[in-house]
Amino acid sequence: MAGFRPPLSLKARAVGYLSRREHSRAELRRKLAPHAETPEEVDTLLDALERENWLSNDRFVDSLVHRRASRYGAARVMQEAKTHQLGNEQLHDLQDRLRETEVERAREVWRKRFGTAPDSPEARAKQIRFMVARGFSRAVVGKIIRGAEDDE
Predict the structure, then answer these.
(1) Where is the RecX third three-helical domain (predicted)?
(2) What's the pLDDT score for residue 150?
């Protein structure tokens, strides 16, 4: 039978996912569950992957920041992070990291999308809606737009 491949082992499947990008433990568990005979089999594999340093929630957090922070505000990134069942300490560290750079990141997103101060109340509302939908706080958005208006 040409083209027949035996099914991948659970570990091979996990390493394949991890070689493409970092995954949280919860995300990898969800992806592997349909291919395992028991939930315990998945947890045993995940424990081994963590011991061997293939799987790391800390690296996953770094990866999440790298992939999302340049386009989204702290609220949006934190919302995604919470779906990955990270520990409280990891979530607090992530939130602190995002807050430190929130204004600069918001300014860059605003500059790429709009670049000029709003010329009407409607344009101002549109810019605010866009930025808030991206997960930036109203306080930060107000600061960015006021700064642009003051510069003109």
Answers:
(1) 100-143
(2) 76
In a domain, 142, yes or no: no
Domain count, the chain: 1
The angle subtended at Cα 60 by Cα 57 and Cα 61, nearest 5°, is 90
Measured between alpha carbons, how far apart are the two ends of the chain, in Å? 71
d(Cα 26, Cα 43) in Å, to the nearest integer? 10
What count of Cα atoms within 13 Å lies in the side-chain half-sphere of residue 123?
Answer: 11
Q: How far apart are CA 65 and CA 53, in angstroms?
A: 20
**Residue that the structure tokens 């293939």 belong to:** 54
Q: Which domain holds residue 18?
A: 9-55
Dist. CA 45–CA 33, nearest whole Å: 11
- Measure the CA–CA gap between 61 and 113, rounded to whole angstroms: 26
